[in-house]
Design goal:
The complex is a heterodimer of chains A (190) and B (169). Chain A has five helices and no strands. Chain A has 190 residues and is an all-alpha fold. In chain A, helix 1 runs antiparallel to helix 3, helix 2 packs antiparallel against helix 3 and helix 2 packs parallel to helix 4. Chain B is elongated, with a radius of gyration of 28 Å. Chain B starts with 7 loop residues before the first helix and ends with a helix. Chain B is built from five helices and no strands. Classes of the chains: A mainly alpha (190), B mainly alpha (169). Chains A and B meet through helix 1, helix 2 and helix 3 of A and helix 3, helix 4 and helix 5 of B.
Chain lengths: 190, 169
């Protein structure tokens, strides 16, 4: 260094040009991509906010509700068609059981969706970190995937609740028309 | 010096601030502003100097925007994990209880429509059902959060961090 600079290796013209291009590319990235990245980041940070969690909850409820409602109406109609007495303990038991199955299904379904939303948040965090490393990110689940999974779980829970009830009835021999109505489709004790 | 094609360096100076939207700054306290490199250095070592600037700017950008997120994720998966897990479990419980309350209310209104009241036996059944569903939901949330943490710790941040400090850091 102290030799007056004459022993320093000079950069070639090509090297200078390449460095210039690299600097310009980097500046372009800063100008055009960084704002996009920042937008993505703030979107991800918001994913586990209380507001977003509430949104997920109502989204899943809105998905599940009509399905269960429809099933309930159908089952009641079936009971009426078989001449079930609305004031009987049996009708009320069955109705209560259905309600319980619905509540269980919707409750666990919602819990599933909330955890699913957290999964999405962490997938996003993983992508941000990958971005910082200059790596490609992974695909993230959409809210629709979370909803579908929640519904699947909710229905499975409700069904297992329902079928255990039907089996108990059958075993106790008190099922009558009601149990017949439920189990017919499964080739049960009709 | 201005770039005749993009006029970039002149237009977007080092002191330019970028408006981060969505509470981004509040979250991690990042300094607003982009990092730009002077492409027009002169002298015999212009290329080397420019590259040195580039490395420096890249790393500063990483330190400013990404490192705080990594730190936060590490915190969430270590010291903060217990609290977050409890939050998730609590949320699952709350969601289940809410759904029970809603569905129970609907049922009561439905029965009232037939001129019937819910029996006390029914209320007991419902409360047993709710307890069991809440236990299921809580267990589910606990398992899910642990599973997620394992995934994040084993695949996600571990390798990313070593790469950063060795290669680009």
């Amino acid at each position: 260094m102290s030799g007056g600079g004459s022993n320093k290796i000079k950069d070639t013209k090509a090297q200078k040009a390449l460095a210039q291009i690299a600097a310009k590319r980097f500046n372009l990235y800063q100008q055009y991509y960084v704002p996009l990245e920042n937008q993505f980041m703030s979107d991800v940070f918001k994913m586990n906010s209380p507001t977003e969690m509430e949104n997920v909850q109502s989204f899943v409820t809105a998905l599940q509700q009509p399905k269960f409602q429809k099933q309930k109406v159908m089952q009641e109609q079936q009971m009426f068609a078989q001449g079930a007495d609305i004031t009987s303990g049996q009708f009320q038991d069955a109705s209560a059981q259905m309600t319980n199955a619905q509540a269980r299904g919707m409750g666990t379904g919602t819990a599933e969706a909330l955890s699913g939303q957290l999964d999405r948040y962490y997938q996003g965090m993983g992508n941000i970190i990958a971005m910082g490393q200059g790596q490609a990110g992974q695909a993230m689940s959409g809210l629709g995937d979370v909803g579908a999974l929640a519904q699947k779980r909710g229905i499975a829970e409700a069904q297992s609740d329902m079928s255990s009830y039907v089996n108990t009835l059958g075993a106790a021999g008190t099922g009558l028309g009601l149990a017949y109505g439920y189990s017919r489709g499964k080739g049960g004790y009709g | 010096m201005a770039d005749p094609t993009t006029n970039l360096y002149q237009g977007a100076s080092m002191t330019d601030t970028y408006d981060y939207s969505g509470g981004y700054q509040n979250m991690y306290n990042q300094t607003p502003g982009n990092y730009f490199v002077d492409p027009y250095r002169t002298g015999d070592q212009a290329a080397q100097d420019t590259l040195a600037d580039l490395y420096e700017a890249e790393f500063q950008d990483y330190l400013n925007r990404f490192f705080p997120v990594e730190q936060d994720l590490i915190q969430q998966m270590t010291t903060g994990f217990e609290g977050l897990q409890q939050e998730e479990i609590g949320r699952a419980q709350q969601a289940t209880a809410t759904q029970y309350a809603n569905v129970q209310g609907q049922q009561a209104r439905r029965m009232a429509g037939y001129g019937l009241q819910m029996s006390s036996g029914y209320a007991q059944d419902a409360s047993r059902g709710e307890t069991s569903a809440i236990v299921a939901a809580r267990n589910f949330a606990r398992l899910r959060s642990e599973e997620r943490r394992n995934q994040i710790l084993s695949g996600g941040i571990g390798s990313a961090l070593t790469q950063k400090s060795v290669i680009s850091g």
